[in-house]
Design goal:
DBL_dom_sf; cytoplasm; 2 domains; Endocytic_GEF_Adapter; alpha+beta; guanyl-nucleotide exchange factor activity; 12 helices
Length: 330
C-alpha cells in the first residue's frame, strides 16, 4: 500500500498498529510449543503427555501486553480506515479487488483481519479450560493449566478496563462478573509501569514475585540490636523482576534497586525481616505480611543478588568480602 502511494507510513502505522510485535510474539510462542512437541517425540511420547501446555502459557502470559497495545489502538485504526476509504477511491478499489480476487484472503475484508488477533486471544481461556478438563488432576500440568486460564482472564479483564478508560466504543467480552479488580489485574498494572520505568523489553523480562511488603530505612545499622519494633515501616506494593539476557494507579517510590549491586542478609534475632544493602548507596529493611512470606521474598531476592560471601557478625552492616579484600591488599 505504501509503495503504491495508497497510504503513508504514518497511516499504515495507525491502521496496523503493533501487528509486527504480535507476529513476533506468536512466532516465539509457536516455536516454544513446537520444541516441546519435538522433545516429547524424541522421548517416545507419541501421545504428547509430557508437553506442559499450562507451563508454556504461563510463560506466554508476559507477552499479553502486546495484545493490549493492539486492542487499545483498534478504535483509532478503524476510524482511520473508514476515513481513508471515503477519501481515496483507489484505496477502496484496491481493497475490494484484493478481497474478491486474492484467494489467500478467503474473501475477508481488511477489518476482519484487523479483528483476528482480538478474536484469537479471547479464545484462550476456553481452550485452556477444555485442555484442563481433559487432563487428569494428578498430572503435573493440571494446576498450571488452571492458573494460566485465570491469568489470561485477568489480562483480558484488564484490557476491558483500559478500553473503557480510553473511551473506546467496544471492548473484549468480560470474563469476570464482579466489579472489583482482582489481585492479578492490579499486578498487571504494576508490571506494566515497572517495565516502562526500567526500560526493559517485555520479552526479556521475567516476574519472579510480587505483592505487599513493608519497607524501612534504619540509621547506622542499629535495627538488629533494637529490633524491628523500633522501626517505622511504610506499606508498598513490591515487584521482583529479572532481565533475562540468555500516570496510572502506581507511582515509583524511589529509583529501582538493582540487585546486581546489592547484598541481602537476614539476622537470626530478627527472623520477621531481612535487609537489602546497596553497596554503593543505602540499606533497606523489608518484611512481608507474615514470616513465611518474608522468608520467601528473602530467598528469591538472595538468589539474584551478588554473591559477596557470608556476612560476619554485624558491624556497621559491612559484608565479609569488604573486610577480606582489605586484608588481602594489605
Amino acid at each position: 500500500m505504501q509503495s503504491a502511494g495508497l497510504l503513508t507510513a504514518e497511516q499504515l502505522t495507525i491502521v496496523f498498529g503493533n501487528v509486527q510485535e504480535l507476529i513476533d510474539v506468536n512466532d516465539k510462542f509457536t516455536e516454544h510449543l513446537q520444541d516441546s512437541i519435538d522433545q516429547a517425540f524424541d522421548r517416545g511420547d507419541e501421545d504428547l503427555l509430557t508437553v506442559s501446555i499450562g507451563e508454556i502459557f504461563l510463560e506466554f502470559v508476559n507477552m499479553l501486553p502486546a495484545f493490549q497495545t493492539y486492542c487499545l489502538q483498534q478504535s483509532a485504526a478503524v476510524n482511520m480506515l473508514n476515513a481513508l476509504e471515503k477519501e481515496k477511491e483507489l484505496l477502496r478499489i484496491f481493497l475490494d479487488v484484493s478481497q474478491n480476487d486474492n484467494t489467500a484472503l478467503r474473501r475477508m475484508n481488511l477489518r476482519s483481519f484487523l479483528m483476528a488477533p482480538l478474536q484469537r486471544v479471547t479464545k484462550y481461556p476456553l481452550l485452556l479450560s477444555r485442555i484442563s478438563k481433559a487432563t487428569a488432576e494428578r498430572h503435573p500440568d493440571h494446576a498450571r493449566l488452571r492458573e494460566a486460564k485465570s491469568r489470561v482472564e485477568s489480562h483480558l479483564e484488564h484490557v476491558n478496563t483500559r478500553t473503557k478508560q480510553e473511551g473506546a466504543t467496544w471492548s473484549l467480552r468480560s470474563f469476570r462478573r464482579d466489579s472489583r479488580k482482582s489481585r492479578e489485574v492490579v499486578n498487571i498494572e504494576m508490571r506494566e509501569m515497572s517495565v516502562r520505568t526500567v526500560g526493559w523489553a517485555r520479552e526479556s523480562t521475567r516476574f519472579v514475585m510480587e505483592g505487599p511488603l513493608q519497607i524501612s530505612q534504619p540509621a547506622d545499622g542499629q535495627w538488629a540490636r533494637k529490633g524491628s519494633r523500633a522501626l517505622k515501616f511504610q506499606n508498598v506494593q513490591s515487584l521482583l523482576m529479572v532481565h533475562d539476557k540468555s500516570s496510572g494507579k502506581f507511582a515509583v517510590l524511589r529509583e529501582p534497586i538493582h540487585l546486581g549491586n546489592c547484598v541481602v542478609s537476614a539476622d537470626p534475632e530478627c527472623d520477621d525481616t531481612f535487609e537489602v544493602l546497596d553497596i554503593r548507596r543505602e540499606a533497606f529493611v523489608l518484611r512481608a505480611t507474615d514470616k513465611s512470606r518474608t522468608q520467601q521474598w528473602f530467598r528469591q531476592i538472595k538468589r539474584y543478588t551478588r554473591d559477596l560471601g557470608p556476612w560476619r557478625k554485624r558491624r556497621n552492616a559491612l559484608p565479609n568480602i569488604m573486610i577480606n579484600t582489605a586484608q588481602s591488599r594489605s
